[in-house]
Amino acid sequence: MTRIWRVRLCVCLWMGLSVAQAACVKTARWFEDGVYSYRGADGQPTGLYVELLRDAMRRMDCTVQWMELPWARGLAELEGGQLDILPGARKTVERERFAYFSRPVNRSPNVLFMSAAANQRYKFNKLADMVGTEFRLGIQVGVAYGAEYDELIKNPDFVARTQPLTVRRNAWGMLQMGRLDGLIADEVTAWGELESLGLSKAVVRTKVVTSDEPGQYALSKRTNTPEFVAGLDKALNAMLADGSYKRIRERFVPCTTLVETQGCR
Questions:
Q1: How far apart are CA 44 and CA 34, in angstroms?
Q2: Measured between alpha carbons, how far is 209 from 204 in angstroms, rounded to an integer?
Q3: 59: helix, coil or strand?
Q4: For a Cys-Cys bond, which of 59, 88, 99, 152 suits 218, CB 3.0-4.6 Å?
Q5: How many CA atoms lie within 13 A of 250 on its CB side?
Q6: What would the pLDDT profile of 57-78 be if each residue is shown by its tens digit?
Q7: What is the rounded end-to-end Cα distance, in angstroms, of the chain?
């Protein structure tokens, strides 16, 4: 082989390798969301769902491009195929129309929180107890809160008790100021946000749990294949087996992780 052909062959091989290495790039949503995703000291996204996905994608020889999006917009872009992966989603029949779901990666219930004043006034055993009262409930647009909520939201009397919110974190101050009485929130997220805002005593966790389904990665059916989802599950399972999952989760969540349930012990 002449020197010219050797050079051409090397260039072709290098170009082919570069294309292969760049082929697996996925977009994923992040937003300021307590321990699950936030901007780190270096200006880059970090948090539980961010770091778990980074590790899993590295094992698949893939990279992630992070898109900062509010939850409802991220869900819409996942459906439209402008976003590949939405971390922290709970599986619903509606979402399964347009998304595949990974294996469970985190379990933290959605719980009703109340201001201390509202907790003295209202003693609810379930969400339906709000109907016929003056209770004001904050709900985040596009979030799945469980089967009871899905039925209640069809009831105009219950809807009248709700106030839609784009960004959940802002609602804690609304509880403190008396503009809202309650808010449904992921328990782990609420712990972190209330502590950082100095509102741990001003807001009370009630016994009303609206859902306990695990958080998963939702993957757009427009841009992903079942084979890719299987590969992601394989990587996540390996992380559970080798201790990587536990180490990453305990960096962000203030409890001992039970690997079998992906929740707090």
A1: 15
A2: 13
A3: helix
A4: 99
A5: 13
A6: 999 999 999 999 999 999 999 9
A7: 65
Q: Specify the pTM.
A: 0.81
| Whether 115 and 176 share a structural domain | yes
Q: Are residues 235 and 197 in the same domain?
A: no
Question: Among 119, 122, 138, which Cα is nearest to 130's?
Answer: 122
Check: CB of residue 205 under 8 Å from CB of residue 187: yes
Task: Point out the residues of the chain with pLDDT beneath 70.
Answer: 1-22
Q: Is 150 helix (H, G, I), strand (E, B) or coil?
A: helix
Geometric angle at alpha carbon 204, from 199 and 210, rounded to 5°: 125
202 and 252, same domain (yes or no): no
Regarding whether 218 and 198 lie in a shared domain, the answer is no
- Say yes or no: 85 and 175 in one domain: no
Both structure tokens of 137: 């409930």
DSSP per position, 172-205: HHHHHTTS-SEEEEEHHHHHHHHHHHT-TTTEEE
- Counted residue by residue, the chain has a size of 265
Contact 29, 87 (CB under 8 A): yes
The residue whose two tokens read 């808010």 is: 183
> What are the tens digits of pLDDT across the range 86-97?
999 999 999 999
- Cβ contacts of residue 261 below 8 Å, gap of 6+? 107
Q: Which residues contact 92 (CB under 8 A, 6 or more apart)?
A: 144
Would you state the structure tokens that stand for residue 44, as one six-digit string? 């880059």
Q: How far apart are CA 9 and CA 1, in angstroms?
A: 10
Q: Give dist(CA 116, CA 177) in Å, integer.
A: 11
Q: Which range of residues forms the domain containing residue 218? A: 3-107+214-264
In total, how many domains does the chain have? 2
